[in-house]
């Protein structure tokens, strides 16, 4: 009775959820809370809290990333610059190489970007630097549909058809290759989104949306533009005098030297595996746990001297690497990473400041070091913390994502082409590409002057390469399927060589535009994306090679083995029948 008129606080893990007034005594331990403006949902929530009491496992942050406004602004600026330069390069390339048809592709590309930004705005997607990289990469991959169509149109022109029939048959014959190549890439993008986090999801979002839109703009919009040009008797050209006959009448034998190419690939992979065993990879905190900080000074600093100073403060040697310019470093430490107290982050940050404050010419306070001032020039630019418990989960998540992508692609190709041999050849080529990329990172990390950590961005690069490489392979497989249908009595090697030769123009053009855009991202995209872009550059080069010299030859050898096995069984059955007759 003494507490009537007072309030009782209902607290869950230190947070006051409700504070009702005491109106009467509580007889027999029974009471009720009434009045106020609670909704039914809020009342049920409060009832559950009262039943549960203190949570047995209080919530804690296991992953956190903070990017300061100055670094964020620089990243967006460099990302937009790379986007503009790549966009102009792709537009000029298509206009020059494919002439008026290239102009149609450029209009479709403008529409693709316009729709892409519209869709992203409508779903509330946040524009991040990896997201911009996804848009830039989409530019190169989006024109692939146009390249496939135009190379088909050139074949129809050489067959002596009229332009209206050229447009009709060019698009019709390109449909299956475009759909198959895009579906495989989109599937890996979806896996990337589901198993990625944060910036990786931003990259996957823009990539998948861009590829879906390219199916609409390249197939539907471009077709409308061509039909309009035909209706208005406008001249349509698919190249100039220098490019119209490029990659025609080729007769390279890609099947014959396959065993030599197997040896070349095996040697490169073996060298990479040796370096992985000796030097290892450079894992980021995504997969090790810890804290990382990007810090900028007002002068160039020695990473060795900085490491020693921080070792004295932390009591352990942190990892200190130059990150971009010589006055900017990335510091990674596991100091107090297992400390669950609220003050742990502040203690680590203050200790970090004490270890680096004497390396600036200009003396700054801790408050200035940590400030979020947009005009900030020196100090902490960004920080990241990942709990070791979640880092192990991220490792298995990454392995599962890559494995799932390979399984999905194998199943799709095997079902779509109705031959498991195609699926096996494609997946073996993807294993080949992945191992070479990992080997290159083992060889060059710490040698090349940019970040080459194996983190979630690296896994994103691997999955993107898987999608890109299989897209290249599917184009060749689609043409092999077409040739084996048209010429069933031809030797398979002849059909394979014909398919690769006839699609070589598309392979070179698509790979060329992709490499150009990746080079733009590498040069202008900023330090954050250099490791990712380097992995992509290796992947595109190796993926182009493997689609010709790994995926297709392996499929050929497996087809030949299956054929010999079938013939052997038929002979054995024939012998059994002959014996029975006797």
Task: Lay out the secondary structure.
Blueprint: E1 10-12, E2 15-18, H1 40-52, E3 63-67, H2 69-122, H3 129-158, H4 163-195, H5 199-231, H6 258-278, H7 285-288, E4 290-296, H8 303-314, E5 319-322, E6 328-333, H9 344-356, H10 366-370, E7 379-386, H11 388-416, H12 420-444, H13 456-486, H14 492-502, H15 504-524, H16 527-581
Antiparallel strand pairs: 1-2, 3-7, 4-6, 4-7, 5-6
Can you walk through the features of this model?
This protein is an alpha+beta fold and 582 residues long. The longest helix has 55 residues. It folds into 3 domains: 43 residues, no CATH class; 394 residues, Multidrug efflux transporter AcrB transmembrane domain (Multidrug efflux transporter AcrB transmembrane fold, Up-down Bundle); 97 residues, Alpha-Beta Plaits, CATH 3.30.70. It is globular and about 105 Å long. The model has no long low-confidence stretch (mean pLDDT 83). Strands 3-7-4-6-5 form a 5-stranded antiparallel beta sheet. A two-stranded antiparallel sheet has the order 1-2. The chain has 16 helices and 7 strands.
């Amino acid at each position: 009775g003494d507490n009537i008129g007072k309030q009782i606080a209902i607290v869950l893990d230190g947070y006051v959820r409700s504070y009702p007034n005491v109106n009467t005594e509580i007889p027999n331990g029974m009471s009720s809370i009434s009045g106020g403006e609670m909704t039914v949902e809020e009342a049920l929530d409060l009832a559950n809290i009262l039943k549960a009491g203190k949570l047995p496992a209080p919530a804690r942050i296991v992953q956190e990333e903070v990017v300061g406004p100055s670094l964020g602004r620089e990243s967006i600026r460099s990302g937009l610059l790379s986007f503009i330069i790549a966009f102009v390069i792709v537009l000029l390339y298509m206009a020059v190489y494919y002439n008026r048809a290239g102009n149609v592709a450029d209009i479709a590309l403008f529409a693709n970007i316009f729709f892409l930004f519209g869709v992203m705005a409508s779903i509330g997607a946040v524009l991040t630097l990896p997201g911009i990289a996804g848009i830039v990469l989409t530019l190169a991959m989006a024109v692939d549909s146009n390249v496939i169509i135009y190379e088909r149109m050139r074949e129809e022109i050489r067959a002596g058809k009229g332009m209206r029939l050229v447009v009709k048959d060019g698009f019709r014959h390109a449909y299956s290759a475009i759909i198959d190549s895009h579906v495989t890439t989109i599937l890996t993008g979806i896996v990337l989104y589901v198993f990625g986090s944060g910036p990786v999801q931003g990259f996957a979002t823009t990539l998948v949306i861009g590829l879906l839109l390219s199916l609409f703009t390249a197939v539907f919009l471009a077709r409308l533009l061509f039909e309009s040009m035909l209706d208005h008797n406008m001249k349509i050209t698919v190249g100039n005098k220098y490019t119209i006959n490029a990659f025609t009448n080729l007769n390279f034998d890609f099947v014959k030297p396959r065993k030599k190419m197997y040896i070349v690939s095996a040697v490169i992979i073996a060298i990479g595996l040796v370096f992985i065993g000796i030097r290892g990879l450079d894992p980021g905190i995504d997969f090790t746990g810890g804290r990382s900080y990007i810090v900028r000074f007002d002068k160039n600093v020695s990473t060795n001297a900085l490491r020693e100073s921080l070792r004295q403060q932390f009591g352990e040697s942190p990892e200190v690497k130059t990150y971009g310019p010589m006055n900017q470093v990335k510091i990674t430490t596991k100091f107090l990473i297992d400390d669950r107290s609220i003050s742990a982050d502040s203690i680590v940050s203050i200790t970090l400041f004490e270890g680096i404050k004497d390396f600036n010419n200009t003396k700054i306070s801790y408050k200035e070091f940590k400030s979020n001032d947009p005009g900030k020039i020196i100090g902490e630019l960004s920080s990241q913390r990942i709990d070791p418990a979640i880092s192990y989960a991220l490792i298995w998540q990454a392995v599962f994502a890559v494995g799932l992508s390979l399984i999905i692609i194998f199943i799709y190709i095997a079902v779509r082409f109705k031959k498991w041999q195609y699926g096996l050849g494609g997946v073996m080529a993807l294993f080949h590409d992945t191992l070479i990329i990992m080997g290159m990172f083992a060889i060059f990390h710490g040698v090349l002057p940019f970040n080459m950590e194996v983190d979630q961005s690296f896994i994103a690069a691997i999955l993107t390469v898987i999608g890109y490489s299989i897209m290249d392979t599917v184009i060749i497989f689609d043409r092999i399927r077409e040739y084996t249908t048209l010429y069933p009595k031809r030797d398979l090697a002849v059909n394979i060589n014909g398919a690769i030769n006839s699609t070589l123009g598309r392979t070179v053009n698509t790979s060329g535009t992709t490499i150009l855009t990746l080079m733009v991202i590498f040069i202008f995209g900023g330090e954050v994306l250099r490791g990712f872009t380097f992995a992509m550059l290796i992947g595109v080069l190796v993926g182009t090679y493997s689609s010709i010299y790994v995926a297709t030859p392996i499929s050929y050898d497996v087809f030949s083995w299956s054929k010999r096995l079938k013939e052997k069984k038929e002979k054995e059955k024939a012998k059994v029948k002959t014996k029975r007759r006797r």
